[in-house]
Structures are given as structure tokens and as C-alpha cells.
Inverse folding.
């Protein structure tokens, strides 16, 4: 059976790049992670930040001791003195970022043994095995790497499909045309390039715009994609749809925005009363969460 080689490229998403499928797509019902696991920044797609575990409680918390430490000094050209990370727990493995280059690290949760660390640039690249493989085989066959969107650590003509999911606008403006050319290099002839990009419009965009305005970078991404043919990427189809962003509450929105870009914390704090008003004005309260519409455009290209 032919092996389908699919590469998934995410930028600026930090440790979430270590988990498949990608959280926060806004489609369908958000499933709670199995007990003992923490698969997203807020634990689940609604960012409830809740786990039913009760082994540690207020009575024994004072008795906790450090079991092990993992030093990140070797992850980058210099030690990192302001390391902030929310580790993810998936199937007994801790995934986190570390070092000045924010390398993704997989750790054995029972001890400090590093299972794998991937050092490099800002793009996280994941290889998916064939769709009909069982879960254990997928786990063994998945490979995590880091690099730049303009310089992917992938052999030429190695991929059938390449995906940018809400990440292309995070590539430096000068590097976006190069990222399309790099995609052409790694795709096989006739290979597919799937790019999904949020548009600079809609309730969710308006909500985040006060603290984190992406108008320029989102418009620039669409402009570059309109010239994709120059990079041997022929447009197969373009469609638009509404992605629904689900948040438990205003605090979950704060955590989401400041986690994506910590530099927004000062702006968020300065304009918090205004943002809070916008949250209730632009959102829809549905049961135990809030929903916000985000217009999104999907581009499907075929490598010529």
C-alpha cells in the first residue's frame, strides 16, 4: 500500500504543535481530555482549565516535594531566564517548550528523561502516517521537527500534502513568497497545498483587534496567496466559511490571546474594560460557553 506523506506546518503556536489533531478549530463538540491528560492550553477546546484529578488536594499540598527537574540550558545559543510554559500531557508524555529558541521537548512524565527534543526555528512540522493505520502505528510513525517556513527540514518532492492551518500570516512578510516556493520544493508533482487563513473581519477579529491587531499581516497573506502561481502553485479551489471560536469565559479569552503573543499582555491590561464590553457585545452566550464568528478563507493549490 502506498504511504501518504502529509506534513502539517504551524507557526507561532508554541507547544500545541506537539498534539494532533489541532485544538481550537471550532468545529463540532469539544471532547474533554481523558483523566490525567492536559491536551490544550486550557485543557480542552472550551478552555475550561478543569481536571477531575483529586490525588493532590488542599490537605496534602504542603507535603509536595520536587521529584525531578529538566534543565533547558542546552536548548538554544544561551540560557533562557524568563521561561514560561504550560506543559501538555498526552499518553504519559509531557510536551513543553524550552530555551531561547522555544524548542519543543517531549519528556517522560515519570522521570526527567527527555524522549525527544527538536531544536530550530519557528515552524513546527509534523508528518502523518497513512489514514488507515491504527493509533499505535500513528504514534510510532509521527515525526516532529522544527524549521522555518522558508526552509523546511524536508527532502525535495517528499510530501503529498502540505497544510498551513491559520499560520501563514505568522510568517514574516518578506518570507511569505519564499514559503510558497519552499512548499513547491517539498511537494511532489501534483501535490496539494492547503492553506486556511482567518480574514481581518468578523466578531472575533474585532474582539482581539484592540489588544492584538492583525489587519496588516492578514491582508498581506491574502495578497501573497493571490500570486501563488508564481511559485508553481496552481489554484484548485478557494472557498470561505465561518469558523466558530468557542470560549468558556472572558478569562479564557485573555489566556488564549496572551498565550499566543505575550507582548499583548500590556495592551490587554490597558484596554481591559473596553475589551470586556466587546466580549459581551460581539459574542453569543450558548449554554456554558461563548461563541464568536471568524470569517476564514481556504486556498487549495496543486503543485504544477
Amino acid at each position: 500500500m502506498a504511504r501518504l506523506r502529509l506534513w502539517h506546518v504551524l507557526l507561532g503556536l508554541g507547544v500545541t504543535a506537539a498534539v494532533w489533531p489541532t485544538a481550537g478549530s471550532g468545529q463540532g463538540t469539544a471532547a474533554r481530555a481523558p483523566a490525567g491528560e492536559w491536551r490544550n492550553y486550557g485543557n480542552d477546546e472550551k478552555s475550561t482549565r478543569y481536571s477531575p484529578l483529586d490525588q493532590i488536594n488542599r490537605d496534602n499540598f504542603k507535603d509536595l516535594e520536587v521529584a525531578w527537574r529538566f534543565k533547558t540550558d542546552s536548548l538554544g545559543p544561551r540560557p533562557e531566564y524568563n521561561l514560561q510554559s504550560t506543559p501538555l500531557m498526552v499518553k504519559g508524555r509531557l510536551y513543553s517548550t524550552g530555551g531561547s529558541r522555544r524548542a519543543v521537548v517531549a519528556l517522560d512524565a515519570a522521570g526527567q528523561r527527555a524522549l525527544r527534543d527538536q531544536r530550530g526555528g519557528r515552524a513546527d512540522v509534523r508528518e502523518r502516517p497513512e489514514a488507515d493505520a491504527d493509533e499505535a502505528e500513528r504514534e510510532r510513525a509521527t515525526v516532529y521537527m522544527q524549521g522555518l517556513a522558508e526552509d523546511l527540514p524536508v527532502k525535495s518532492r517528499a510530501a503529498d500534502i502540505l497544510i498551513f492551518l491559520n499560520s501563514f500570516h505568522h510568517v514574516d512578510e518578506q518570507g511569505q513568497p519564499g514559503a510558497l516556493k519552499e512548499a513547491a520544493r517539498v511537494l511532489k508533482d501534483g501535490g496539494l497545498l492547503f492553506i486556511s487563513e482567518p480574514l481581518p473581519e468578523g466578531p472575533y477579529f474585532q474582539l482581539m483587534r484592540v489588544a492584538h491587531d492583525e489587519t496588516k499581516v492578514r491582508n498581506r497573506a491574502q495578497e501573497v496567496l493571490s500570486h501563488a502561481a508564481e511559485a508553481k502553485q496552481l489554484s484548485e479551489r478557494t472557498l470561505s466559511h465561518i469558523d466558530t471560536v468557542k470560549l468558556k469565559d472572558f478569562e479564557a479569552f485573555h489566556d488564549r490571546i496572551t498565550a499566543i503573543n505575550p507582548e499583548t499582555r500590556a495592551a490587554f491590561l490597558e484596554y481591559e474594560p473596553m475589551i470586556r464590553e466587546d466580549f459581551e457585545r460581539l459574542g453569543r452566550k450558548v449554554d456554558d460557553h461563548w461563541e464568536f464568528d471568524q470569517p476564514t478563507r481556504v486556498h487549495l493549490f496543486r503543485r504544477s
Observations:
- The CA atoms of residues 265 and 284 lie 24 Å apart.
- Helices lie at 135-141, 176-186, 203-209, 215-225, 250-260, 265-270, 272-282.
- The mean pLDDT is 78.
